[in-house]
Amino acid sequence: MGQTKVPVVEQYPQIAEVLGSESLRKFIESRLHVHKLHRQHEANDIINQVYVEFDRSVEAGRYEETGNLSAWCRQTAYNIICNLAKKNLKEVTVDSSSLDYLNSCSSDIKVSGTTVSTLYQALKELSSEDEEILRLHFIKRLKYQEIFDLLVSKGSEIASVATIRKRVERAKARLRKIYAQKASPG
Fold first, then answer.
1. What are the sequence ranges of the domains in the chain?
2. S-S: 38 plus which of 32, 97, 138, 178, CB 3.0-4.6 Å?
């Protein structure tokens, strides 16, 4: 006769207690908020994925009983959320909230609720080429090589990746200048 698989809950009865704990739920909810995933995913979804991963780990012999089960579940939940966040970054849409990424253009630009519209207006005043290259680099998070490849495939006659890098620097400088003029009183 074939061997019947013993359910993980019977092998490790403490898993139900850990997965049902309020501290794990609060941890997951806080991580979902930090990664701005709280509207797409619920804590229960992550808890279920942690259980599935625990079941797989036990079956594959990767889980060691000497470890702290609660810490293992928290770390696994964190890893799941980070993976979801990475997938989410690949699907960034270009809207005014995405302009927060432009904060990385300059240490002196502080993006807040009052300056997003000013930053958006300044971005619109750039040439279409400058606006496109900044959107590709900072909002779509493409690397210089990827921008180069994309623009060349569109028929642009750009000499090299170094040209893209320099164009990004110059576009950032122009954006800073326009932003400073719009943001300064008077």
1. 8-89, 96-183
2. 32
